[in-house]
Specification:
about 150 residues, five-stranded mixed beta sheet, alpha/beta, 2 domains, 5 strands
């Protein structure tokens, strides 16, 4: 496995499709792995191997695990993966598409703390935005002379 330089991964519920290529782009392996076998397979890869996957709900989890193993994990936004699909959408094709690009544009890796903060942070931001909109509306009510406009009455 020392010849593998890039790996494209398609994450699914039960199996993970991997598509590995060497430095010249020749396919080394293209197979489906069970979720528990995937991390063991990645541990056997050479250090700093580029592993690209399409952004999904579990992509950040897997990327953090791969970074902990010393790999170079990249998460590609879904709208950037779509134009590269040559055939129909399937796990095998998605993994192939992710591995074909040596330098993909990527999504920033999310820290695990955000998963805990997000449920509380988003509603708080909504309240702040509503408050700002109310303030802006109050400012729009007055006309250029500083008096309330007729529309607000």
């Amino acid at each position: 496995m020392s010849e593998i330089t890039r790996v494209g991964v398609d994450l699914a519920k039960n199996v993970i499709q991997v598509h590995a290529v060497d430095a010249v782009g020749k396919v080394v392996t293209n197979k489906a792995l069970q979720r528990d076998k995937f991390i063991l397979w990645c541990a056997m890869l050479p250090a700093r191997c580029l592993i690209a996957m399409e952004a999904s709900s579990s992509a950040h989890h897997w990327a953090r695990k791969l970074v902990a193993l010393g790999q170079d994990a990249h998460i590609i936004a879904a709208h950037l993966v779509e134009p590269y699909r040559l055939q129909g959408k399937s796990g095998k094709n998605d993994a192939n598409d992710a591995a074909d690009r040596p330098k993909p544009r990527c999504v920033k890796l999310e820290l695990p703390i955000w998963a805990k903060i997000r449920p509380f942070w988003r509603p708080a931001m909504r309240c702040t935005c509503k408050r700002e909109r109310r303030t802006q509306r109050a400012g729009q009510v007055t006309n250029a002379t500083g008096h309330p406009s007729e529309q607000s009455l």
